[in-house]
C-alpha cells in the first residue's frame, strides 16, 4: 500500500528534537504493515525554503529514505472547485496538490494533521482515505490485532509523586510553562490519572475543582463566579486506543460528582498533539472563550457549559453530553454477559475480575460506541436513551448502564461496509462480525451508534424490575428495544443512588 505523508508529518519525524511522540508510533506501524512511505515534491520544495543551509542539507539526506511521487496526477477540476472554497494561504495550494494524488488514486491513503486537508477530503467524498495520526493508528490496531505487541495498562489514579517527573513525556510542558518542575513537585500528594504503554508514560490528566472565589485575573474576558472543574494538565500520545475519550469520561464523571456548572481548560495550540486535543474537546461541546496570559505567551481558553437544566442538543448529543432531554424516548435492551464489560468497562460487576478488562482495545476506551441489533423495532432517534440490561437469571440479570443514541444505520449494503462501520467501536472482531451478518440471511442487522453515558452504582435485578412493573412478566425478559416510561427510568435512577 502506498501511503503519502503530508509535510507536517515529515517535519516532525525528521526534526533534530523530538516534538511529536506520536510520530514514532505511526512509523512503527507503517513498517510493521510494510506500507511504502511516499512524499510529494511540494514537501521537498517547502523543506528547501528553510533559511538555514545546514538544516536544508541535513533534511535532504533524511528525506532520501522516502519514495518521491515522480509522476504527478493532473489536477482534478473537482478538486480545484473545492480548493477555491477553502484555500486562503500560500501553503494551502501545496496541500491541495498533495491531496490531489490520493483523490486521483495515485496513492492509497494520505496521513495529515492539517484541518483544511481533512475538510477538503470530506467535501470530495474521500474522507475514508485521509487520516489523522490517531485515526490511522485506530484503523491499524483494529484491523491487525495480531501485530499489537504491547498493551495499554488501565488508566490509574496515582499521586503525582509516583510519576517520574524527568520522563521525556513532560518535556513539552517544561518548554511551554516556566517553573513546570517546581509546580509539579508541589503537587506531590495530589491525584493524577495516568496510562502507560510498555512501561512508558503515554497519557496524563490532572483535574481540579475550583470554587466561586477562585482568582481568574489572568483570563480575558474575566470569568463570572461559578463552581468549575479545571482540566489542569492533559496530554495524550496517540496510539490508537482512544485514551483521550477515556479521559473525557473521567472528566465528565468528576464534574457530575462535584456538581460544577462549568468545565474549562487552558491550552496552547503550538503542536499537533495540542491541536488534536482541541478538536476532541470541541467535538464534545467545549467552545473557545478567550485567552489566558502566561510568561510564554497566550493560552487559549475553552469552556463547556455543565448546567443540568440546559437545553440539550438532540441532533448532536456530544455537544451537551452527558445530559439528555426530558423529551427523549427511553428503551431497555439486552446485552449478553460475554460482551457487556468489553463494551462498558466502568460497569464491571463485582464478581468479574478487573485484570481481564484493562483498557487495551479502542472499543473499551471510546465514549462513542456501537450496538448491533436485529430488533424488529428500529425507529430510534438521536437523543433517545438506551438502558442496558445485562442478561442473566432472575437475580443475576441486572440493569447496569445507559447511553444516548447518536445515530442509526439501517441501510447497510454489504458485509464489508458492516465491518468497516463496526470495527473500531464494537466488541466483535472481523470474523465474528461476518458470522453475525450472515447468521440470519433474511434478517440483516442494523447499527446503533450511542454515547456511553452512565454506569449505575446500585444495579436493579430482573426481580426488582418485575416487582416495580418495569418488566411486568418475569419470564418476558427484554428482547430487542422495548420502550419504558420516563417514570420507570427515574425509578431505576433513584434505586441506583439508594433513594
Task: Explain what you see.
With 499 residues, the chain is of the alpha/beta class. It has 3 domains: 2-131, 3-Layer(aba) Sandwich (Rossmann fold); 156-305, Aminopeptidase (3-Layer(aba) Sandwich); 330-496, ph1033 like fold (Roll), CATH 3.10.590.10. The chain is built from 18 helices and 19 strands. Strands 6-7-8-10-11-13-12-9 form an 8-stranded mixed sheet, covered by helices on one side. A 6-stranded mixed sheet has the order 15-18-17-16-14-19. Strands 3-2-1-4-5 form a 5-stranded parallel sheet. Strand 7 (191-197) and strand 8 form a beta hairpin. It is globular, with a radius of gyration of 24 Å.
Topology:
Layout: E1 2-5, H1 7-14, H2 22-32, E2 36-39, H3 41-48, H4 53-62, E3 67-68, H5 77-86, H6 90-103, E4 109-111, H7 115-124, E5 130-131, H8 133-143, E6 156-159, H9 171-176, H10 180-186, E7 191-197, E8 200-210, E9 219-220, E10 228-236, H11 243-257, E11 262-267, H12 272-283, E12 287-294, E13 297-305, E14 330-335, H13 337-343, H14 362-365, E15 368-373, E16 385-390, E17 398-409, H15 415-422, H16 430-438, E18 446-455, H17 462-467, E19 482-484, H18 486-496
Parallel strand pairs: 1-2, 1-4, 2-3, 4-5, 10-11, 14-16
Antiparallel strand pairs: 6-7, 7-8, 8-10, 9-12, 11-13, 12-13, 14-19, 15-18, 16-17, 17-18
Helix pairs in contact: 2-8, 5-6, 5-7, 6-7, 15-16
Amino acid at each position: 500500500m502506498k501511503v503519502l505523508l503530508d509535510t507536517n508529518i515529515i517535519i516532525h519525524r525528521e526534526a533534530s528534537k523530538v516534538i511529536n511522540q506520536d510520530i514514532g508510533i505511526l512509523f512503527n506501524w507503517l513498517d510493521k504493515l510494510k506500507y511504502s512511505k511516499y512524499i510529494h515534491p511540494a514537501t521537498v520544495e517547502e523543506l528547501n525554503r528553510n533559511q538555514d543551509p545546514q538544516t536544508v542539507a541535513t533534511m535532504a539526506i533524511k528525506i532520501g529514505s522516502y519514495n518521491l511521487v515522480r509522476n504527478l496526477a493532473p489536477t482534478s477540476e473537482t478538486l480545484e472547485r473545492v480548493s477555491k472554497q477553502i484555500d486562503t494561504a500560500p501553503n494551502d495550494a501545496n496541500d491541495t496538490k498533495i491531496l490531489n494524488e490520493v483523490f486521483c488514486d495515485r496513492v492509497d491513503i494520505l496521513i495529515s494533521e492539517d484541518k483544511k486537508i481533512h475538510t477538503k477530503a470530506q467535501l470530495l467524498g474521500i474522507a475514508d482515505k485521509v487520516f489523522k495520526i490517531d485515526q490511522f493508528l485506530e484503523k491499524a490496531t483494529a484491523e491487525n490485532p495480531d501485530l499489537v505487541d504491547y498493551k495499554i495498562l488501565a488508566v490509574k489514579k496515582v499521586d503525582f509523586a509516583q510519576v517520574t517527573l524527568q520522563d521525556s513525556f513532560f518535556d513539552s510542558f517544561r518548554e511551554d510553562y516556566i517553573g513546570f518542575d517546581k509546580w509539579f513537585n508541589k503537587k506531590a500528594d495530589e491525584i493524577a490519572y495516568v496510562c502507560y504503554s510498555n512501561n512508558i508514560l503515554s497519557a496524563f490528566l490532572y483535574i481540579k475543582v475550583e470554587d466561586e472565589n477562585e482568582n481568574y485575573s489572568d483570563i480575558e474576558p474575566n470569568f463570572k463566579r461559578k463552581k468549575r472543574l479545571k482540566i489542569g494538565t492533559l496530554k495524550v500520545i496517540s496510539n490508537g486506543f482512544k485514551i483521550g475519550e477515556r479521559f473525557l469520561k473521567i472528566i465528565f464523571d468528576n464534574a457530575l460528582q462535584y456538581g460544577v456548572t462549568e468545565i474549562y481548560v487552558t491550552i496552547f495550540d503550538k503542536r499537533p498533539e495540542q491541536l488534536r486535543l482541541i478538536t476532541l474537546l470541541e467535538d464534545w461541546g467545549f467552545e473557545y472563550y478567550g485567552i489566558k496570559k502566561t510568561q510564554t505567551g497566550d493560552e487559549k481558553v475553552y469552556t463547556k457549559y455543565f448546567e443540568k437544566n440546559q437545553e440539550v442538543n438532540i441532533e448532536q448529543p456530544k455537544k451537551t453530553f452527558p445530559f439528555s432531554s426530558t423529551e427523549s424516548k427511553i428503551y431497555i435492551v439486552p446485552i449478553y454477559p460475554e460482551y457487556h464489560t468489553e463494551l462498558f468497562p466502568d460497569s464491571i460487576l463485582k464478581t468479574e475480575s478487573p485484570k481481564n478488562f484493562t483498557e487495551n482495545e479502542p472499543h473499551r476506551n471510546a465514549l462513542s460506541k456501537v450496538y448491533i441489533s436485529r430488533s424488529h423495532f428500529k425507529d430510534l432517534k438521536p437523543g433517545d436513551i438506551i438502558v442496558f440490561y445485562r442478561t442473566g437469571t432472575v437475580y443475576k440479570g441486572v440493569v447496569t448502564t445507559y447511553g444516548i443514541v447518536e445515530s442509526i444505520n439501517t441501510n447497510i449494503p454489504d458485509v464489508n461496509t458492516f465491518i468497516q462501520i463496526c470495527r473500531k467501536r464494537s466488541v466483535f472482531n472481523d470474523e465474528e462480525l461476518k458470522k453475525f451478518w450472515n447468521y440470519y440471511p433474511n434478517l440483516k442487522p442494523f447499527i446503533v451508534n450511542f454515547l456511553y453515558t452512565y454506569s449505575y452504582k446500585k444495579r436493579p435485578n430482573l426481580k426488582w424490575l418485575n416487582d416495580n412493573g418495569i418488566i411486568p412478566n418475569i419470564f418476558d425478559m427484554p428482547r430487542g428495544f422495548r420502550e419504558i416510561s420516563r417514570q420507570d427510568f427515574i425509578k431505576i435512577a433513584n434505586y441506583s443512588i439508594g433513594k
